[in-house]
Give the backbone structure.
Amino acid sequence: MKKFLGIFMTIVLLAGVLSACSGDSKSSGDSKSSKDVDLKIWSFTDELKKPITKFEEKNGVKVELTIVPIADYPTKLKPVLESGVGAPDVFTGEIAFLKQWVDAGYWENLSKDPYNVDEIKDNYVPYVFDLGKDKDGNVRALSWQTTPGGIFYKRSIAKEVLGTDDPTEVGNMLNSMDNVFKVAEKMKEKGYSMFPDEGSIRWFSQGDNPQPWVNDKNELKLTEQKIEFMDYAKKLRENSYTALAAEWSPSWFEAMDKPIKVKENGKEKETEVFSYVLPTWGLHSVLKTNVKESAGDWAVTNGPSPYFWGGTWLGVYEKSENKELAYDFVKMMTQEDEFLTDWAKETGDVLSYLPVTNEIKGDFTDEFLGGQNNYQFFLEQAKEIEPGIVTKYDQQLDTFYGNAVQQYVDGKKSKEEAVKEFYQKAQNAYPDLKVPKK
Amino acid sequence: MKKLDRYGYVFIAPFWIIFLIFSIYPVALTFYYSFTNYSGSGTAEVVGLANYARLLSDSYFVEAFFNTWKIWGINFALQIGLALVLALIFSDMRMKLKGLAFFRSIFYLPNLITISSVALLFGILLDWQHGSLNMILLNIGLISEPINWLNEPATAQLSVSLILTWMWFGHSFIVVMAGVSGISKDYYEAALIDGANRWQTFTKITIPLLKPILLYIMITSLIGGLQLFDLPMLLTDGIGSPDGSLNTMVLYLYNQAFKFNNYGYASAVAYGLFVITLIFSSLVFKGMYGNERKQARKV
């Protein structure tokens, strides 16, 4: 009896342990069989939710969307892609890690049969299409959007200070860094802040000479224009042209809608921010979601130089067992007239798919921007974009450089020290880079 | 009897299988990777001791080492001090304080909040322009300029130390109290009769008899402290700003592996960290118990 009990207990315990294990692996691993999911998609935002619902209805399939916050996204996705266990069939990539991923071959080669996407190359904004290519020129990922940027400003303030709220005229007043500072001075005289913080102008630091951080020879290049940006940032701080509201901080968001209090040199002042430097997606996912009272009082115009910021690409996982359906989804997101027209009208996203943009750009208006046709504006800006400047190092090097600039602006380091430290950090993170020894 | 032995193996098998797969295998693999230039994808080339050579001359790792010690040290001193003072108050027979259970849960509460919430909370409290802390200090006139807490190396490190203290003193307090309640009341009664004051009772009875407990707290806190990662990661930009002052050893390891894709070097950093933890844990142990053992042998 005792012996029997022993065996029985062992079996019960083992069964418990084993079922716990297998239950685990089922939920995190291959869920296709257990939950009847036809397609698995991973992304870092919830923007795909609606398209997925449409896709499900149209094809009578079940799609599972996994959203991972952007900070953890590459860390979580990479092991899954490497091992192929529990991997998605379709996944999106942000521009920050796009270059690494297209070259790593995680995405299916869309240039070959049966996809042959090169045939529809002319349908896309050129830089968007080119960025999805790997180093051999094969297309690995496509995008539905284009993300050129501009300066979003408040019309009422422009009218009061500059005498006009017309985007073209305001744009002419902001067409060079010198002019930006002239406007900033006028803003300050009336008690307004030109920008929320010094980082706002970083996109214009490339000037008319956009260069990649790292060139073909693996050399780190800090251009004159980028170094000049340090002086511009310092000038913004020293002349109190900003509201000292760091990007993505609570006060940064707060200042979009109402005046905020700023403490400087022992004095407290209340100031309203005139403009935010944001790309296309900044309109519907940043401004519109945070602004209530001043909706309709905004407009968008150009800055000293064209730039772009961010962007989401998507492609089919190379080892997916369901490539046909996976590509159907990619196709819907990037090539389907009907869907994309609805998407653009609903979200205001600026599309990279030209057959649709050409159709709708003529009479596109946005209530939030006081009826301005932002579509035409952004498409013009998109033409100026140079795709060759994106490298796989960008995200980290931008952070390092942003830190160096901050140290200089705060007066903690001289310009030379800040640059030197930037080089050291870059070398430490990427030992293979050729960094100037200074 | 012999037959029964086999059941023992069956019982411990699940643990060993899981332990081998999820603990030993990764540890061994990390050791292998520490001799390669693995970048997270593709193949790894064996580069010999290059990663360890780099580790020994890496000024950023040295900086991370001292940062970790500074942040942990301040936090530990405050945490254990606070826990002892509280334990002293609550265990004092003459004071007969009520509501120990209530205070215990109140003090322990911060430990239950997820670290991301804590980071978010303090990120807002310590905000330069609009944070409550600066508002209060400005209003009562203690400072005339808002302090940019998380933008100055010294205040950033101090902030992390204090947040950690706030989170962990309750835990230490509970462990100390458990140790205190394990001390026989007889000693205290005898001390009371002999006319010892509070300080004498504390230093001559409580502290010596608490030594194993204090050692336990110290070593677990040290190991946890050397692995300090989440708070520095979440409070600023994740790479140790301002000026590298929040760059701790594990944060450095994480960034080398997952941000810069130097998996090989990060593995070497992991083993460096392991050796450091080993050395300091044994030093602490030796420091507290080394003399006693020698004496015991003499007797």
Notes: Residues 133 and 285 of chain B are 39 Å apart (CA to CA). The first helix of chain B runs from residue 2 to 33.
